[in-house]
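User: I'll paste a sequence; please echo it back and then give the predicted structure.

Assistant: Echoing your sequence first, then the prediction.
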Amino acid sequence: MLHGTGTFEIVPPDEAEMAVRFTAITGQGYPFIVAEDADGVVLGYAYANAFRARPAYRWSVEDSVYIAPTARGQGVGGDLLTRLMEIAAESGFRQMIAVIGDSGNAPSVRLHKRAGFRMIGVFQQSGFKFDRWIDTVLMQMPLGAGGSTLPDETRYPGTLYDR
């Protein structure tokens, strides 16, 4: 956050804020997973959250994957994203959307391409950080049956949406 453009956040959240976010995300039925090494050191984390708040989007989630600088290039991101996609599909979600900060963020774009995401488009100069305009990249991956069948309304994922 302080040096990169992979996220448009400016101020790193403290431990208390991360706890609030974790509770909000998991409390609504979305997955949040953490990768640790054998000594319990966090290597990265990933979560899925509502893509948009309107009820018609309830079957789509946005993914977020963060890797510790010391763990980059070791496959942690791929493992986290793969597992996140599995959990989201098992939960009944049908689409996963990647909203990637900075069109120059080749590692994140490559991570998502390797996982099967396809490029949807680029919002040019949509963020402003470090005294410059930054693009936002959108990528998408169908989960489970994707849009080929109707969702199972009895599973109604999450609790964010009112019926």
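Residues 86 and 123 are 28 Å apart (CA to CA). The domain at 15-142 is CATH 3.40.630.30 (Aminopeptidase).
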